[in-house]
Design brief:
Layout: H1 2-28, H2 38-51, H3 56-64, H4 68-85, E1 108-114, E2 117-123, E3 130-138, E4 141-144
Antiparallel strand pairs: 1-2, 2-3, 3-4
């Protein structure tokens, strides 16, 4: 009887060890989110912008990858367009759908991180094919902070 208990115990222990190894292996194989690094969020944003002409959801996804300054800028532009056009515009509609095009194909990206800010150097094949993209950390994710012009209030005409 003792031998049978020992055998059952050994089998149960072996099953637990296999289960523990599977759980540990599965958690070790999980991939980081694409926006977990500055380079990853730049790649993901470019992908979303390029597919936006064919995929209506991609523009919203691209907007969600923008940082707080860029989102506030586009929200202000949407509010202004809504007042001027008589219909409601959403901030993601301020991105140039269908007008996005890369000047060059990215071949390499390297990030320089300083606290919650990062600058991603994007390089193509030629010496003139490079760009720097500013990113900011928002929680555990990185977001794109493109250099958008400030929204300026138009001057009012006198007598109007």
């Amino acid at each position: 009887m003792a031998t049978r208990r020992s055998a059952l115990f050994a089998h149960a222990l072996a099953a637990l060890l296999v289960l523990a190894a599977l759980v540990a292996g599965a958690s070790g194989c999980s991939r980081a989110a694409p926006d977990a690094t500055p380079e990853g969020v730049v790649r993901l944003w470019l992908e979303k912008m390029e597919s936006a002409a064919d995929d209506g959801r991609a523009m919203k996804d691209a907007y969600a990858l923008l940082g707080p300054r860029a989102r506030a800028n586009l929200k202000e532009r949407a509010d202004r367009a809504s007042r001027g056009q008589g219909r409601r515009y959403e901030p993601h509609e301020m991105l140039a759908e269908g007008r996005f095009g890369l000047r060059f194909r990215p071949k390499a990206m390297t990030a320089k991180i300083d606290g919650d800010d990062a600058w991603v150097e994007v390089k193509g094949d030629g010496p003139d094919q490079h760009a720097t993209v500013k990113c900011t950390r928002e929680g555990s994710a990185w977001r794109i902070e493109p250099d958008l012009p400030d929204v300026v209030t138009p001057a009012r005409r006198e007598g109007g």
